[in-house]
Amino acid sequence: MTDMGTWKAHWWKILGVLLIVYIIVGGFLFEVPELPVIRQSIRNIYFHVGMWFGMIFILFVGVVYSLRFLLGGRTLDDTRALSAVQTGLLFGVLGLLTGMLWARFTWGAFWVNDPKLNGAVVGIITYLAYILLRASVDDSHKRARLAAVYNVFAFVLFFVFIMILPRMATSSIHPGVDGNPALATGDLAPQMRLVFYPAMAGWFIMAWWLFSLLFRTRKLRDGISEYEETINTPTHG
């Protein structure tokens, strides 16, 4: 009975691990088309693009919890929002690193002056400012409200930086923006869909798993801090 209950509670984690293993195997061993420019480096789409989609997903989760905090004022919603942003930043950094590796083998340099690449960095900086904002305010309630409002606007700005402004640029060498072969132009081969779509699901699950771990860890740490403050506060009377 206990084993069955454990399976029901953690089946999605097992699925996530299996999907990541499948992504790694399929990403390196399954057949991919020889597309112009990007060629075999198209395999990185399972990792780079998947991590960015996972990042966007978990950052949106953070926005939802920030809105819930603004409506209800529950501290745990603020904690969840912070955990989601931290998870999103990790996925964002991993996305940048895999993107730089992809750029090195495609364009010959780890970084080039490209609107989509620059927008991604500005978007990450926008969320780093969220962390700095929280660290600069001592009052917990004021900090939570300011952070919640900022988080909502940060998500909108991030979407503008990585999706809207790059598409308004006159030119870009980034795949899928200006006629380069990639997912956005419909060049994802049928055999690649067998890995790409499971990859999206796998990175979503991994993002949610890490978010839940960060939340539980922070919740436990905050509980310990409150307990220590309680026992160290002198009583009168």
Poorly predicted sequence stretches spanning 5 or more consecutive residues: 178-182
**Average pLDDT value?**
85
Number of domains: 1
Number of helices: 6
What separation lies between the terminal Cα atoms? 52 Å
Topology (elements, then pairings):
Elements: H1 2-29, H2 48-72, H3 75-107, H4 115-136, H5 140-168, H6 190-232
Helix pairs in contact: 1-6, 2-3, 2-5, 2-6, 3-4, 3-5, 3-6, 4-5
Structure at a glance:
With 237 residues, the protein is mainly alpha-helical. Helix content is 76%, strand content 0%.
Description:
With 237 residues, this protein is mainly α. It has one domain (17-217). It contains 6 helices and no strands. The radius of gyration is 21 Å and the shape is globular.
Keyword list:
237 residues, mainly alpha, 6 helices, globular
